[in-house]
Design goal:
By secondary structure, this protein is mainly α. It is about 90% helix and about 0% strand. It has three helices and no strands. Helix 1 runs antiparallel to helix 2. The radius of gyration is 15 Å and the shape is elongated. About 5% of the residues are buried.
């Protein structure tokens, strides 16, 4: 994989995590407390899995992307 593909992979992972996070307010509104808690834990586990399986591997191959992501997030609030 080259660095451009790694960037694309990371951006896609961030979008996927964002979509999952966006579910939480809807779930909180329409689920009971325990049901919401179970879904929220599932969302957290899925996001963590995305980070480990995709983002961490890409930044291990291209460590410079770590500071690039941090700079973009600081400046624009996201890495997309």
């Amino acid at each position: 994989m080259d660095i451009e593909i790694a960037r694309h992979l990371i951006r896609t992972a961030f979008r996927s995590s964002g979509e999952l996070s966006a579910l939480l307010p809807l779930l909180k509104e329409h689920c009971g407390t325990e049901e919401y808690k179970n879904y929220a834990q599932g969302v957290a586990a899925a996001i963590h899995g995305i980070n480990i399986a995709l983002i961490d591997k890409a930044t291990a191959s291209f460590p410079e992307l770590e500071s690039e992501m941090e700079s973009y997030i600081a400046k624009y609030g996201r890495y997309l």
